[in-house]
Specification:
Methionyl-tRNA formyltransferase that formylates methionyl-tRNA in mitochondria and is crucial for translation initiation. It comes from Petromyzon marinus. The protein is built from eleven helices and 13 strands. It is α/β, with parallel strands linked by helices. The chain has two domains: about 180 residues, Formyl transferase, N-terminal domain (Rossmann fold); about 110 residues, Formyl transferase, C-terminal domain (Methionyl-tRNA Fmet Formyltransferase, Chain A, domain 2), CATH 3.10.25.10. Strands 3-2-1-4-5-6-7 form a seven-stranded mixed sheet, with helices on one face. Strands 8, 9, 10, 11, 12 and 13 form a six-stranded antiparallel sheet that branches. α5 crosses α6 and α5 runs antiparallel to α8. The N and C termini lie far apart (about 60 Å).
Length: about 375
């Protein structure tokens, strides 16, 4: 049998044990993963391996980062799987993978939320190359944070892509399988991760059930519709009250707020904003009625619902919890820091274009640090 590649992504489609292409399961699989999105796929592979009638897997081992707190490491250990630390350092150009000649190596690698670039030598070591389960409809949202950017940009449709890994580049390989799904209304990035991780696991098992067939029919990614999903940086957490709308702050909170709390400043002191309320909550409507002349950053405390409302570019947003050295409810913050200010009749706190130094020392408003304004974060509407 010839060593003809199945497509441009395959460098070597040879079975290491039998010196010929294996055209059907069971496969020897090496899994690469790190965070929570990878867990459903790893669990699905283990279940397929443990189910004797499936005949899908012959071997399953795991590669992950060396930290003991990595979710994939914890699950792999719990499942009794062999775990290898990343990175591998090839001892020679003809180095072999874990398992070595005695076990015949591995037919295919599977990458799910691993975050490390892979070399050509590593990819070529697998007869069927390395698959990647990616939580977006590539080429939309290539990069490390597709779930966050899906929510942040208000996408209504998303999905999962199973693709082939290419060396030293993220998310550019041929597509084997892709499945569309609607984004649930007002879901968070965490909720979307949970949903798509299950979809990804199902697509992975489906791909492995006919790996040669899906490999042969794989297609290049479209050139149109490419968007990037870079890693989130901390500057994105800072709210720009005069530049960001209620809708954008809501999406920002649902995209990153459960992992990186939104931030602002009060009296030059940093504050974390937590437990954001629905932007259609009646408290924000009440704030608009009571403070019709408020400016971005101005505060209003809604006593009946215990919500602190903040004026932004086009309306009001509300939060139930804040962190100022320690966690405080909205009422605790109001009673401890704002009550006397508002009791004295100070209802208009800042003015458009007011000097940053003056705004920063106004008890009745939040503000964005000057060092954050204009930095390379996200200032979108």
């Amino acid at each position: 049998m010839s060593a003809k590649a199945l497509n441009s992504d395959d460098a070597n489609v040879w079975d290491n044990k039998h010196s010929e292409v294996r055209k059907k399961p069971p496969w020897r699989v090496l899994f690469f993963g790190s965070d929570n999105f990878a867990l459903e796929s790893l669990q699905a592979l283990k279940s397929a391996w443990g189910f004797s009638n499936s005949g899908l897997l012959e071997t399953l081992e795991v590669v992950t980062l060396p930290k003991q707190t990595i979710p994939v490491r914890s699950l792999a250990s719990e499942l009794g799987l062999v775990v290898h630390d990343w990175p591998y350092v090839p001892p020679s150009p003809s180095w072999s993978l874990p398992g070595g000649p005695t076990s015949g190596g591995f037919h295919v690698g599977v990458v799910v939320s691993f975050g490390c670039l892979l070399s050509q030598d590593l990819i070529s070591s697998f007869p069927y190359g390395i698959l990647n389960v990616h939580p977006s409809l590539l080429p939309r949202w290539r990069g490390s944070s597709p779930l966050i950017h899906t929510v942040l940009h208000g996408d209504t449709v998303t999905g999962v892509t199973v693709m082939k890994i290419r060396p030293q580049r993220f998310d550019v390989g041929n597509i084997l399988l892709q499945e569309k799904h609607s984004v649930p209304h007002r879901c968070t990035a965490v909720e979307l991760r949970q949903m798509l991780s299950r979809v990804g696991a199902e697509l992975l098992i489906k791909t492995l059930s006919d790996l040669p067939g899906y490999t042969e029919k794989s297609t290049e990614q479209p050139k149109e519709g490419l968007t990037l999903a870079p890693k989130v940086n901390t500057s994105m957490c800072w709210v720009r009250w005069d530049q960001q709308t209620t809708d954008y702050i809501d999406r920002l909170y649902r995209a990153i707020g459960t992992q990186l709390p939104l931030r602002t400043q009060w009296m030059s002191r940093p504050i974390k904003l937590m437990n954001m309320v629905d932007i259609e909550d009646m408290s924000t409507s009440l704030a608009a009625q009571k403070r019709p002349n408020a400016h971005p950053g101005d505060l209003y405390f809604c006593k009946h619902s215990n919500i602190l409302c903040v004026r932004c570019q086009d309306g009001w947003v509300g939060f139930r919890t804040l962190v100022l050295k320690k966690k405080l409810s909205a009422s605790d913050f109001y009673n401890g820091y704002l009550h006397s200010f508002f009791q004295e009749g100070h209802h208009t706190s800042t003015q458009p274009g007011e000097e940053p130094e003056r705004a920063a020392n106004c008890p009745g408003s939040f503000h964005t640090p000057a060092s954050v304004i204009g930095c390379n974060g996200s200032i979108e509407k």
